[in-house]
Structures are given as structure tokens and as C-alpha cells.
């Protein structure tokens, strides 16, 4: 299945002096601890926005967030100086002259890159902690200019760093990841229960579905390409 792409414009929250934290106090505490442990630069804090609300995160990033995702780091590059932006600048800077010096020194009025983080709220306390650490490792990579992609969640070099910084063993981290994923999957199932059962007339293989197939499909076990001989039949 290929989901429809939403290509909306990212709308991050307006910058403020400190980080934007739309999250629990626990998250705030883990954020402070791991920010320090990872030696992250203070000036990046003012570019950070963190939320536990999926809708808000999707609005900020302009991208879809799967219901299975437990945490997400999104780097927004500084917007290009468009024609409109260039025209706007003199007006904004004259307005900012009235602001206290310390705020102007942070140059909140200038376009800047942003660090956006989502943390799923409905998780065990240990999972909340390691997810905060995990997303901050992505942030640290980006600040260093060496972003990494996951080769295998829980088994790659990011997982090794996560274990080193949190003090959890790799096995423990994998167990947490597995438990939280199972939980998300179960939640998704209760929200979208399996209503349809398709069966192959040839081999009897069953295909449980939350929705009807929009076109006729055949059994992939009996033939890799569509074959009307093995067209699936709706049972329930
Ligand atoms: Zn990751
Ligand atoms: Zn079959």
C-alpha cells in the first residue's frame, strides 16, 4: 500500500528565547539531562520545539506521521530568502529595535533552521527517557553536520550510542522498542478492526483486511503477478 503524500508547507512555531516545550515535566527533565550529556550547544536550544501531540507535529513539519512512530526528529533548514522575505526584513528589524538587547542578540527575527521533535506520550517511563535520548542523538548528528540514517532500529550505530548515553543495555533497548511497538499495533487494531477476510480459492491462504480491496486482487503465494485464477474471495 502506498499512502498519499501530503506536501504541505512546514509551519514551525514562532521562535522564542528558550526551547518550545509542549510536553510533560518529565520530558523537560530528560531533555535538560541529555542536552547536557550530549554536549549540545546552548544556542541550538532556541531553535528547538518539542511536542507530544501528533497533529501539532504534523502541522509544524508539514509531513504525515505514522501512528506507529514512537518518536521523531525533524530538521527544518532555514527558509530561503524569498522575494517576500527580503521585502519584509526592513519592517521587521525596525520593529525589533524596541526589543531588549538580549533578545535582539539571539536574532529571533532572522530565518533559521529548526529542530522539531515528537515524543509519544503513551509509553512506559523508561521508553520516554530513551526516546528523548534517541531523538537528541539525531539532533546532535545534525548539529555536527553528520546526520545518520537508520540501517536497523535497535541494531545500528545509533542504537549503540543510545545504549552508551542512557546506560541501558542493547537488549533492554530492543525489548522496550518491541513492547512499545506491540502496544501501538494493538491500539491501531482496536481503532481499525479487521472487518474483512479474503481467502485464496486455490491454497486457502487468508488475508485479513481493515478495508475492502478497491480492485480485484489475487493470491501472492500462488502467483507473484496478478492471476485471475487465484482471485481472492471475500468471506466475511
Ligand atoms: Zn531514529
Ligand atoms: Zn493461494
Features:
3-stranded antiparallel sheet; 7 strands; 7 helices; elongated; 12% strand; disordered N terminus; alpha/beta; binds zinc ion; Zincin-like; 4-stranded mixed sheet
Protein described:
The protein is of the alpha/beta class and 236 residues long. The chain has 2 domains: 20-77 and 113-191, Zincin-like; 194-236, no CATH class. The protein has helices at residues 25-37, 54-61, 83-96, 101-105, 125-144, 157-166, 170-191, and strands spanning 20-22, 48-51, 71-76, 114-119, 196-199, 206-209, 233-234. The chain has a 4-stranded mixed β-sheet, sandwiched between helices. The chain has a 3-stranded antiparallel β-sheet with strand order 6-5-7, with no helix packed on it. α1 links the parallel β1 and β2. The protein is elongated and about 65 Å long. Residues 1-6 and 83-98 have low confidence and may be disordered. One zinc ion binds next to loops.
Summarize the structure.
With 236 residues, this protein is an alpha/beta fold. Helices cover 39% and strands 12% of the residues.
CATH class of the largest domain: Alpha Beta
- Average pLDDT confidence is 87
User: End-to-end span in angstroms?
Assistant: 21 Å
Q: Largest sheet, order of strands side by side?
A: 1-2-4-3
Helix-strand pattern: EHEHEHHEHHHEEE
Total domain count? 2
* Low-pLDDT windows of residues: 1-6, 83-98
Label the CATH architecture of the largest domain: 2-Layer Sandwich
The number of helical segments is 7
Hetero compounds: zinc ion
Helix content: 25-40%
Task: Write the CATH fold name of the largest domain.
Answer: Zincin-like
Structural class: alpha/beta
Q: How many β strands by DSSP?
A: 7
Strand content: 5-15%
The profile of the biggest β sheet is: 4 strands, mixed
Shape: elongated
Radius of gyration: 23 Å
Amino acid at each position: 500500500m502506498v499512502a498519499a503524500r501530503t506536501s504541505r508547507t512546514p509551519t514551525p512555531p514562532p521562535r522564542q528565547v528558550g526551547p518550545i516545550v509542549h510536553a510533560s515535566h518529565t520530558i523537560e527533565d530528560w531533555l535538560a539531562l541529555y542536552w547536557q550529556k550530549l554536549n549540545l550547544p546552548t544556542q541550538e536550544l532556541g531553535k528547538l520545539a518539542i511536542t507530544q501531540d501528533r497533529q501539532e507535529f504534523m502541522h509544524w513539519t508539514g509531513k504525515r506521521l505514522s501512528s506507529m512512530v514512537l518518536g521523531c526528529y525533524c530538521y527544518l533548514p532555514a527558509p530561503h530568502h524569498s522575494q517576500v522575505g527580503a521585502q519584509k526584513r526592513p519592517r521587521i528589524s525596525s520593529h525589533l529595535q524596541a526589543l531588549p538587547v538580549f533578545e535582539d542578540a539571539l536574532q529571533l527575527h532572522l530565518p533559521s533552521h529548526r529542530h522539531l521533535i515528537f515524543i509519544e506520550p503513551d509509553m512506559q517511563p523508561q521508553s520516554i527517557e530513551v526516546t528523548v535520548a534517541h531523538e537528541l542523538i539525531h539532533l546532535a548528528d545534525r548539529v555536527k553536520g553528520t546526520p545518520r540514517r537508520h540501517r536497523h532500529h535497535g541494531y545500528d550505530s545509533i542504537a549503540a550510542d543510545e545504549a552508551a548515553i542512557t546506560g541501558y543495555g542493547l537488549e533492554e533497548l530492543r525489548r522496550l522498542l518491541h513492547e512499545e511497538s506491540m502496544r501501538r499495533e494493538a491500539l491501531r487494531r482496536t481503532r481499525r478492526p479487521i472487518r474483512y477476510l479474503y481467502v485464496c480459492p486455490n491454497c486457502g491462504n487468508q488475508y485479513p483486511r481493515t478495508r475492502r480491496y478497491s480492485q480485484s486482487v489475487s493470491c501472492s503465494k500462488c502467483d507473484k503477478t496478478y492471476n485471475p485464477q487465484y482471485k481472492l474471495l471475500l468471506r466475511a
